[in-house]
Amino acid sequence: MCGICGIVGHQPASPIAFEALRRLEYRGYDSAGIATLTAAGNIERRRAAGKLDNLEYVLKEHPLPGTTGIGHTRWATHGAPTENNAHPHEAGRVAIVHNGIIENFATLKKELEAKGRVFVTETDSETVAHLVDEYLGQGLAPREAAFAAIKRLEGAYAIAMIFKDHEGLLIGARHGAPLAVGYGNGEMFLGSDSIALAPMARKMTYLEDGDWCELTPGHVTIFDMTGAEVSRPVQDLTFMAGQVGKDGYRHYMEKELHEHPVAIGQTLKRITDPASKRIALPEMPFDPAQVPRITITACGSAYYAGMVGRYWLESLARIPVEIDVASEMRYREPPQPDKGVALLISQSGETADTLGVLRSLKKAGQSIVSVLNVEHSTMGRESDLVLGMDAGPEISVASTKAFTAQLSVLAALAIDFARARGTMDQAREERLTASLLDLPSRAAEVFTRTKDIQAMAAVVAQARDVLYLGRGICTPIAFEGALKLKEISYIHAEAYAAGELKHGPISLIDQTVPVVAIAPSTILFDKTLSNLQEAKARGGRILAFTDAEGAKRLEGVAEQVVIMPDVDAFVAPILYAIPVQMLAYEVALLKGTDVDQPRNLAKSVTVE
Ligand code: G6P
């Protein structure tokens, strides 16, 4: 994680860097800093612990001059989130910003200390500054010194550097963490992603792993890891500047929750044939009928989307599915079948663990299909097929609309596979597709239930522990609800498949532990009802998301219900994810937490 940016041009660099950092703050907000070159060619830095507002205050008091600069917003890995550990790090003639982890920093640091270098921070990143300066001291020019240093780094990094006495020079490098070059008018930029670059550049180039580049005003030269000059495609920026405002909502999360209907609708639009109203996914680079197994991997909410996807793919397309979180899958080394398909799910397309699995499963001969919101991300570029969602930029750290967009793609994929494998007749296909296409309207209806969700939130906000229960295809939605509550309200929440309640968690239940049930009146409703009665019998306060039929049957059992629009059981997990996320949001409002930037988290987790 961490966000980095760089500017070489003719306008004051510091305000541009600050604007880029605002847009990158979702990647980490433990500290922030900017360094620029003064007219005399000296490096000056301003840094502050905590959020960007603190840096803004420092910059107001002590503005930074110069038209060449770098910026950083940090999610701490090595060293506490203090001002001293904040980037940019300076050593002699160079200042650097770094996103990632330098895995061999201890060895490099020892070597540099032996040469008399004094380290002043607890970070791994400072090593890079010293290493570059060491090579500069040996008489190498900035470009050569940067290259010599980069070649010695192990781990993951995106780096930007500026050099004393070299106005109009910026060097960037990437390996395992994203970095993009932005093209302006007589100015050039570096940014961790397109969102950072959107206000100042109209075109951009994503560097490939191992690439590094030299930027001067109006020009970029890109090199690969051998030092050979390479050319990389230039693309139009897809995220425009205005798309990432809050549009009058209190938080990005609130705005993004309200964008569920549009995110689902736009996503489905891309994968449906408007004339036949049938699912029309891009052609697969394999024959779906011949696929022996799908291996789904993801992290966080995307993993829960994958859990729902497994239900659909197994039950509709009768295809065996293996699934795990990426950080486990990466080191499990499960045997991979011949002609198998790896399905990676990620909003950002940059999550280090998921990317690691993508690469290892590619090596293991699996076809790589990824479900991504940011299609030009590293995962997108390394996949055999990208199934793009169209959720638009998601800024709030807690994922919302990307989750339902992921589910929409996975539902369509299950239908597509089922058709290709002959496991679903046309009538059923039409019914399921219709229920999917009807979802944007049903999703919009959910917001008419806000008052009921707020009433439920008032109960949850009093609790120290909350239990979420689901059954079957709604179990992953219970997990999503518990994750969201933990993430943004800091209330401890556990999710369980309702049937497991009696095998342990029931012992936790008393009047102080609300039980939130995700319970549409589908085929497993009776069983869920029994489980809820068991919880109620132990004094549990039952709060349920259900439909009109379910609400009737929960009378006397549930203390509060949110009555959801009636939908086909197939799409229930997509619809029920919305109020579950809204509940977490409403609880967070009551608790007064920092909804968009919860403590210790970052949105794009580009370290292992
Ligand atoms: C972080 C975010 C989650 C997200 C997860 C996976 O933990 O806080 O909201 O679900 O990363 O991110 P990805 O970009 O791979 O979907």
Q: What keyword list fits this structure?
A:
single chain, 608 residues, alpha/beta, Glutamine Phosphoribosylpyrophosphate, subunit 1, domain 1, Rossmann fold, 3 domains, 8-stranded antiparallel β-sheet, 7-stranded antiparallel β-sheet, 20 helices, binds 6-O-phosphono-alpha-D-glucopyranose
Could you explain the architecture of this structure?
There is one protein chain. This protein has 608 residues and is α/β, with parallel strands linked by helices. The protein folds into three domains: 3-240, Glutamine Phosphoribosylpyrophosphate, subunit 1, domain 1 (4-Layer Sandwich), CATH 3.60.20; 249-437, Glucose-6-phosphate isomerase like protein, domain 1 (Rossmann fold), CATH 3.40.50; 447-596, Rossmann fold (3-Layer(aba) Sandwich), CATH 3.40.50. 37% of the residues lie in helices and 23% in strands. It is built from 20 helices and 27 strands. The strands form five sheets. Strands 3-2-4-1-10-9-11-15 form an eight-stranded antiparallel beta sheet. The protein has a seven-stranded antiparallel beta sheet with strand order 5-6-7-8-12-13-14. 6-O-phosphono-alpha-D-glucopyranose is lined by residues 299-302, 346-348, 351, 354, 397-399, 601, 603-605. Residues 299-302, 346-348, 351, 354, 397-399, 601, 603-605 line the site of 6-O-phosphono-alpha-D-glucopyranose (G6P).
